[in-house]
Amino acid sequence: MITRFAAALIALAIVAVSCGAPADSAPADSQVVAELADYKITVNVPSVKAGKVKIGVRNVGTMEHSFQVLKTDLPPDKLPVDGASAKAKEDGKVGEIASIPAGKSAAVNLDLTPGKYVFICNVAGHYQLGMHTGFTVDAP
After folding, report:
1. Is 33 helix (H, G, I), strand (E, B) or coil?
2. Which pTM does this prediction carry?
3. What residues does 135 pair with on adjacent strands?
4. Given CA atoms 21, 26, 32, 38 in this order, what sign does their dihedral have?
């Protein structure tokens, strides 16, 4: 009787643990969630108030991506690109996640000041293929 009860408890514990959030979901306390698809970035909100911001990033694409946060007044699709590396110049970078494998998630905590920002993937060629989006940080 005790062995069946113990086995039932173990089975229940395994089910409870396996029913947690999937590995590709953004951290629960993220204020901003960015999704990286192959050659597109979308965000759940267009702006936040200045201060400490946690950005959860999900790579829902089929390849590895990166995530850079740049403070700039340039339009998202007008960043200068280095022809030799096929990467956007990262002037004004305030934070990044260097590598997010396909199907995985990561997060970055930043202290953002009011202004215009651009989120990009700066894997060679990805910025030019459309992996960028504008974002605004408003005064508190």
Report:
1. strand
2. 0.80
3. 117
4. negative
Place of tokens 């909100």: 45
As a 3-state breakdown, the chain gives helix, strand, coil percent values, each rounded to 5, of 10, 45, 45
What tens digit of pLDDT does each residue of 120-133 get?
999 999 999 999 99
Listed in sequence order, the residues at least 6 apart from 133 whose beta carbon sits closer than 8 Å to its beta carbon are: 34, 41, 42, 43, 76, 118, 119
Token couple for 7: 């086995």
Q: Which residues pair with 74 in a beta bridge?
A: none
Of 137, 140, 139, give the one whose Cα is nearest residue 46.
137
Contact between residue 69 and residue 95 where contact means Cβ atoms under 8 Å apart: yes
Mean pLDDT to the nearest integer, 90-112: 97
Q: Which residue has the tokens 């998202």?
A: 76
Structural domains present in the chain: 23-138 (2.60.40.420)
- Beta bridge mates, 51: 112
Q: Give the per-residue pLDDT at 9.
A: 38
CA distance 116 to 103: 29
In three-state secondary structure terms, 140 is coil
Q: What is the mean pLDDT of residues 14-18?
A: 35
